[in-house]
Amino acid sequence: xxxxxxxxxxxxxxxxxxxxxxxxxxxxxxxxxxxxxxxxxxxxxxxxxxxxxxxxxxxxxxxxxxxxxxxxxxxxxxxxxxxxxxxxxxxxxxxxxxxxxxxxxxxxxxxxxxxxxxxxxxxxxxxxxxxxxxxxxxxxxxxxxxxxxxxxxxxxxxxxxxxxxxxxxxxxxxxxxxxxxxxxxxxxxxxxxxxxxxxxxxxxxxxxxxxxxxxxxxxxxxxxxxxxxxxxxxxxxxxxxxxxxxxxxxxxxxxxxxxxxxxxxxxxxxxxxxxxxxxxxxxxxxxxxxxxxxxxxxxxxxxxxxxxxxxxxxxxxxxxxxxxxxxxxxxxxxxxxxxxxxxxxxxxxxxxxxxxxxxxxxxxxxxxxxxxxxxxxxxxxxxxxxxxxxxxxxxxxxxxxxxxxxxxxxxxxxxxxxxxxxxxxxxxxxxxxxxxxxxxxxxxxxxxxxxxxxxxxxxxxxxxxxxxxxxxxxxxxxxxxxxxxxxxxxxxxxxxxxxxxxxxxxxxxxxxxxxxxxxxxxxxxxxxxxxxxxxxxxxxxxxxxxxxxxxxxxxxxxxxxxxxxxxxxxxxxxxxxxxxxxxxxxxxxxxxxxxxxxxxxxxxxxxxxxxxxxxxxxxxxxxxxxxxxxxxxxxxxxxxxxxxxxxxxxxxxxxxxxxxxxxx
Length: 664
What we know:
There is one protein chain. The chain is α/β, with parallel strands linked by helices. It has 24 helices and 18 strands. It has 2 domains: 19-115 and 139-149 and 169-241, no CATH class; 274-583, Alkaline Phosphatase, subunit A (3-Layer(aba) Sandwich), CATH 3.40.720.10. The strands form 5 sheets. Strands 7-6-10-1-11-12-4-13 form an 8-stranded mixed sheet, sandwiched between helices. Helix 19 (417-429) runs parallel beside helix 20 (466-490). The longest helix is centred in the N-terminal third of the chain and has 31 residues, at 172-202.
């Protein structure tokens, strides 16, 4: 038997410590490869439809990892290895936390979520159900990396292996230059890999994403999960640290005075209107109808009513035919904010995604203070429009999202409205009364195509067009409303509830020809605006009182003040803009303000110029649509509209709802 010589023995003993030296030469590449695997695994496990990881996504992922880790090249080799291991552990924990949060909320963790621990804490009761054995792949590399980090810190022999690779003092300057040059190259490469695909997306299919995003996952689709968190940090810093204190005492005082004046108006109506408090203690059921415009109500096509159930319901309800949506980029979420918090949307983005952690006076909070239970129902992913967080902010007791429903009528984006309404009524029937139930429909969502089996309206020449599909969709929703009314009656809730619905926004069909063909007349500019902004608003009172069609001007911001007025709950000290609509005598001079600074008071319609020049603005006579040569009839109202928008923006952006209260 041949015995190894001493040098061979030493090489064998040292062999386990040669690995760190080899790893040091590839440490950054190994870090990127391991994290790229985990990001691909995350993408596969969340599996959002139409968002599977592609070449551009992988470029962004590699670029993001380079931007996160380029600075480690400044460090000595041992320090770099330890830093990369720490980054691996931290980023893995972040990505896996996102995975667990997504499994529960169908959304990603954001800074506002972390600021409101209840969102994350909600995972506690269900954490076991969120775990899966294949999740262990996220942590498989830790079996090697964590011991390696420990050896790097505590093992003298391993430190010696590092020491032999450290440059001599006389070469430190050259080494520093080399490290800085290499890190700069990695930084530039990382920026390029991120910028190129993101810019391409932002200028094509994802235009406007970073100003009007409606879902955190839409950002993730472009930036990746790590890039999303970077943008989320930037977004939060921009809105809450960099510009969060840019409000002056004078601005606050002006806004407070504005809201105090509006509160006094509502207080006077509470004191003088006999309908104030007439329906005290009644349940409230409010439905937000997706893309439901008022031009279809009462119309026929081929002799068939488009909305037969709504038409029938109007005979025993209060219906407003000059009611308008007041949404902006936030669309559905803007309508939700307007109806439930009586505040204007922001000019860019959605309040739901930008300022969900701020405080608001809301219908849910006001009713809960009066002894109500308040719940919201929507059979879609709870993270869409950041609803999980925003509904907690608005004070709802419970949010029944898609996971609360049996998808027994798959239709369009999710559950068909017929089943959605039926299952929601079943939940309401078991709840403590009085309650406030806010429901958000979905079946009439763009692009409106419904399967043939549920189509029951002959749209004639519109067949095969988006406009024809839209008519089919609203006809289906109308049938769902009819069935819901029957179910509420059978459940004994109809005569004990104020039943209401409104449309959230227009249908986004840009071509005016089908509108004119359907209505049978040419539309002037003023009529087009009223069709575009007009949505139905119906209020059924338990005793069928006040039934009829009313022509007073109103908007979504008036929904909450109307409900509180009928229930006898004063809103005079709440930071809200709207005024009640259902009254014995309508409020004189009532004005509905739109996000662009336009307004209507039922006498004139003012449209500001897109270029901002007052001389290019237009003032129409309301009803006949005549363009007035003299715009002075609109100027004072335009100034008041701007004051309303400024006051609302100040409250929303700077979290000043409480400061607007009397004595606040």
